[in-house]
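ESCALATION

Customer reports they have been waiting on this structure for their group meeting. Please prioritize. Original submission:
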Amino acid sequence: MIFYGVTAVLLLASFFSDRGKTVKALKIAWKKFSNILPVFIVMLVLVSISLYLLPHELIMDYLGEEDLLRGMGIAMLVGSMALMPGFIVFPLCGILRGQGVPYMVLSAFTTTLMMVGLITLPVEKAYFGMKTALIRNGIGFVIAVMVAVVTGLVFSEVAL
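Update from on-call: job pushed to the front of the queue and completed.
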């Protein structure tokens, strides 16, 4: 709620500062939102159906707190191979968190999803060369491990 309040205050300040620019920006934002909304709804529905069809016990067996390293590994593998936009990933993680998946596992999934791209490797190879693409993906993977471990420490899911 705080973010909504701050956003509203800043929007009002922008509106009183320069009405024309603010209205123009809101029109652009609405157009972009309208364009992405159908895709967002379809993806969200498909993800929701998939999660509904997967039994909660199965999700917790593979991603739960019983074996954080295994859950983190699976999440990183799936994240490295998946090709999903962020606006779908974050609601998906909210649903998974609601089912009890640890923050550390979710962090590993989202970070590899955004930083490692095995599916996009051929495109990276064509533009940057194989060596650079592999180095970039390797560094992304290492950073994802570090982010996941720090997340686990912050949320007391793991201890030193």
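Sent to customer with the following note: Residues 55-160 form one domain.
Escalation resolved.
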